[in-house]
Sequence to fold (302 residues):
Amino acid sequence: MSDPIREAIAAGRPTVEGAGWQDDIHAIIKRFATPSLYLNLSVSEKMRKELVRYYAKELVAQANLAGLRTAKPILRDIGSPITAVRGRALRELNGWTANAVKAFQEELNLAHVTLRGETRVAFFRAKRDVAGFGNADRKQLASDLAKASKADMAAKTKGYNRIRSARTKLAKAEKVGNTVTVKAARVELLKAKAAVKKTDDLLGRFEKAVQASARDGARRQMAAAQKAQYQQSLGKDVKRYWVTVNGSQACPTCEDRHMLLVPDETGGEPGSGQTYCGASCQCHAVPKIHLDGTPIPKPIVA
Fold:
């Protein structure tokens, strides 16, 4: 019974965890880690616009595709025809998408204001520190600050490469099915993610905020596309139930929602931010028809 759900989770996991787009966002921010960021704050405005463009044009499309893919294993299992999303379901999804882009833009605006303020502070702090040793050359100060940022960004790039390698090893281990190897691969992935989080320069903090907003947005967009696919195939009033994953390691608030009606009894969709795990949620809202007769009594291990 849970095999189609595991397949659905596997179809959406790369998008939820940030494989691919995480590197793209890092590359955009890294491109602006130059002296001009300190000499000319309009550079940060260009970076903000590029991030919004990438989210709207690239990441939303990836999330929509992943959402449609996660619905297919469930629909296939119950013998329902899988058709393209159109009509009312598509209009609702498009409306959701437009609002999602606006929400991301507003979150990015707040992070951007913080970045601009921190950039000014960093520059004047550096100017203060060298004032007692002669004239503070503006370009030299900006260059020194940029070198520090460049070193931090290089460390983060190395960390992302480690994450990508750990993900590949985990995928191979899961394919083989060796529990010892899978556990070791998951530990390595957690260590790789923790190493990246240690980067704490101003651009690192900005990127952390952007990545968090993007991950949250991608998860919600994916869930919206999945819901649209179910509505298209099973009707707009299709009842869906929360299926909690990760077994005994599941988030406690997700565990409490297992097999409750979405969204009436759960307060929202999986991954919409009302649970402790937030945008990292791997749970699914599964159509009732898939669970009729053979309910899943406890969270599945996936």
Q: What stands out?
A: The beta strands are 240-243, 261-262, 284-287. The radius of gyration is 22 Å. The chain has two domains: 3-236, 239-302. The chain has a mean pLDDT of 86.
